[in-house]
């Protein structure tokens, strides 16, 4: 029988006056990924950084996540917040950020993990005089343990609008969402915009307010997943057809409404919003979502064997840029 647990473990890590390192909070949102969560937490707790707080947001998991909690019960660096009902990924993320006590803050997906020395390297870079606003290690993307690709960008232009436009042109897995910044800066760009554009729009706000860098000498390993439920994909196939409109409209709407962009004149905001929308629409419609909508439609109307033949033919011809499949590559949001 599953043991009863309190809603929270209030084990607070305080910054020692004699500790030269500022407190770093790592927030891990999770839902039904016990085995992967154990790996993610181990990669954080084994870091060489001394002053560390780890907050786990358990979004009403129904698997063996409680066993991971029990195993970490003696580690005073860990605080555990369990929601009695699933509050959704975005709400889980926001609650963890509001609970953070550290000077620096970062999220970590429950299926990702850090290389040794990662937190020390990021905190050191943020403490330097010419520090950017956000830093993240080189993102190494893997699927089922196999290397897919690595991502490493820098958004360092002095013009904030150019930084945002470059971000929208180059973003793929959006590992910059898991970057480290000061906690106050992380809270400055809240709340999340609901919908499929939430992570892109969220990072764009950061990039507008300051420079962002990837660090080459430490890595954040990002796990990619494939949707394993053909029924679920079939039910939501039509969403891909108009997701491209969501991304374009959300990026433009955020520029026009969020306080981050309040320093621009109204005419500048409108022009900037249209440029953001044009970039996101062109990227998502031409290269991903419109094509995925066609693929999903074919999957619904074709017999299995002809569809698999078309899928295999396309993958051999275009193995990297586009996947002729309704089983889209995704980095699933943690804590859903």
Describe the structure.
The chain is α/β, with parallel strands linked by helices. Helix content is 43%, strand content 19%. The chain is built from twelve helices and 13 strands. The strands form three sheets. Strands 1-4-3-2-5-10 form a six-stranded mixed sheet, with helices on both faces. Strands 6, 7, 8, 9 and 11 form a five-stranded mixed sheet that branches. Strands 12-13 form a two-stranded antiparallel sheet. Helix 5 packs antiparallel against helix 7. The N terminus is likely disordered. The chain has a domain of 101 residues.
Question: Can you tag this structure with a few keywords?
Answer:
13 strands, 5-stranded mixed β-sheet, alpha/beta, disordered N terminus, 336 residues, 12 helices
Task: Give the SSE map.
Blueprint: E1 8-9, E2 24-30, H1 34-45, E3 52-58, H2 65-71, E4 78-82, H3 89-99, E5 104-109, E6 113-114, H4 118-127, E7 134-143, E8 146-151, E9 154-155, H5 160-170, E10 181-182, H6 183-188, H7 198-209, E11 212-223, E12 225-226, H8 230-235, H9 237-257, H10 266-287, H11 289-301, H12 304-317, E13 329-330
Parallel strand pairs: 2-3, 2-5, 3-4, 7-11
Antiparallel strand pairs: 1-4, 5-10, 6-11, 7-8, 9-11, 12-13
